[in-house]
Amino acid sequence: MQLLLEHEHSFINGTSYQTTNTFTVLNPANQNVVKVVSSVDEKGSQSALHGAQQALRQLRRTSAIQRAEVLKKWYALILSHEQALAELMVSEQGKPLHEAIGEVRYAASFVDWFAQEATRSYGEVIPAQDGKHQLMTIKEAVGVVLGVTPWNFPLAMITRKVAPAYAAGCSFILKPSEETPLSAIALAKLANQAGMEAGALQVLLTQEPAALIAKYCQHTAVRKLTFTGSTTVGRILLAQSAATVKRTSMELGGNAPFIVYKTANIKSAVSGLMTAKFRNNGQACVAANRVLVEQSCMVPFIEELTEATKRLRVGEGMDPATDLGPLITLKAKNKVMALVEAALGQGAKLHYKGEELGGLFMPPIILTDVLPEMDIARQEIFGPVVTVMSFVDEQQSVTLANNVEEGLAAYFYSQDVAQIHRVSRVLEYGMIGINEGMISNSATPFGGIKQSGLGREGAKQGLDEYLEVKYLSQKFD
């Protein structure tokens, strides 16, 4: 891990950029200082934009095959540093080591996928309406991209943006979360080693993210914004980008329903819920937020869920026995606890609560008798709290599931084939897991509808997000 910790400054034009203004990265498990990093200044942000523009001109002269080769080398380097990257992630984000290793592999899978997709940005020949024209389209890089990524998946959220951008021939300015900047620097360092052009991937560390992002959003040289984060912040960034009519990709908040029908295999449903709810301690936009259970199977489901939840171990990420690490900050923990207290005050029942460890650790909690109008059912929890509510029939389950502003991910369990087809068609979500609690995959389009965002990441659609279609009309003499 020491090799990857050598850089504690922004990465601009292929090298470290140091300033005297610093902030501290803390280990959420024990609040120890992981690293003191420097915050980029005005000169650095201008240099990064200039370097990105120069790199864009250079990338326009490269072929898709050349860029694919660089991505293949980056992919290999990420995997060869798997353990170090995972340990670095545990130190600044807190997730268990086995989950961190899984994220390294998941992050690398996007680089591998888009190394292949780089050579598939096809144009087309369009049949002319007369015999005097040749009509065609080609695809070209959007231009300089600004990416803003969160702390909950500090590697994967970067690679699934940077890899398709580079495959398309775009240069990229990355503003990672100030909670987890070290993972971003490590990735940039490995990309540089893989042969990415200086300026093709810049990483700007800052303790004043709002001002830095606003400046880039308003700059005409930045042609695209890609953001993963809350719906509230996403609305602000969309407004800031409107004046320059930027292309945007927005992966925003979720409020995922997890529906269990009476025909479901209860053991499988609980197993899927443990993944969909407790992965990364519930700190995921696709985490199951509302568990909807048909009344007739509520008792066996709650029994199975309680036994599975009791087996979860809370602790520091480097402990191999740990299932749930700490929450990211005290503010995050206080928000989750406030939602739980409000729900109890509104009539929900505390069915189970694990052992308190203090600090930023939070025990797993099961709440029953939750109602759809409660705050905890209307807001993204982002913590290890299972909220259970009941329904009487399929129509009510769909109504409950859809009656929120968000539309990112949904899950449901049923062995009734006809029901599977009916429910799949009427759930208002961009992604649906059917008898499956883990839906993320580099080969599939990740993204939501309604107020959960715009655009898709991963799959062939992920490459198109960074390409413009240019139409060519040639007339023959």
UniProtKB/TrEMBL annotation:
Stored InterPro entries: Ald_DH/histidinol_DH, Ald_DH_C, Ald_DH_CS_CYS, Ald_DH_CS_GLU, Ald_DH_N, Aldehyde_DH_dom, Aldehyde_DH_Superfamily
PROSITE patterns xrefs: ALDEHYDE_DEHYDR_CYS, ALDEHYDE_DEHYDR_GLU
Entry keyword set: Oxidoreductase
Matches recorded under Pfam families: Aldedh (PF00171)
Organism expressing this protein natively: Pseudoalteromonas aurantia 208
Domain Aldehyde dehydrogenase: 20-471
Gene: gabD
Active site, UniProt feature: E251
Domain of life, source organism: Bacteria
Family that this chain belongs to: Belongs to the aldehyde dehydrogenase family.
SUPFAM superfamilies: ALDH-like
Name of the protein: Succinate-semialdehyde dehydrogenase / glutarate-semialdehyde dehydrogenase
Keyword Oxidoreductase: yes
